[in-house]
Amino acid sequence: QVQLVESGGGLVQAGGSLRLSCAASGSIFSRSLMGWYRQAPGKERELVAAFTSGGSTNYIDSVKGRFTISRDNAKNTVYLQMNGLKPEDTALYYCNAREQRRTGVYTYWGQGTQVTVSS
Description:
The chain is mostly beta strands.
């Protein structure tokens, strides 16, 4: 299982911004749907933003208008631009890659990068 590598997390005040990055291997990046998840202590992991199979984007309602997922194909990297951060955004953010192959679906996860928003 190839690992995805997240970076860009940190501590910010409410209303601030961060940009997360996820570097993937070229083979995984080119054939997978990429997305971002997050998990706060004691809570379930939730999908935050992702690319759809049609090349569009999808966001959970709580981050619409504040977060933007994007990618740089030349760098095999997906980003999550987070603006107007709120304390409720505090979580460990994970990069995810989902690959549909003939033999089944393969899912890859990064190790996570911590985002902490102070009030």
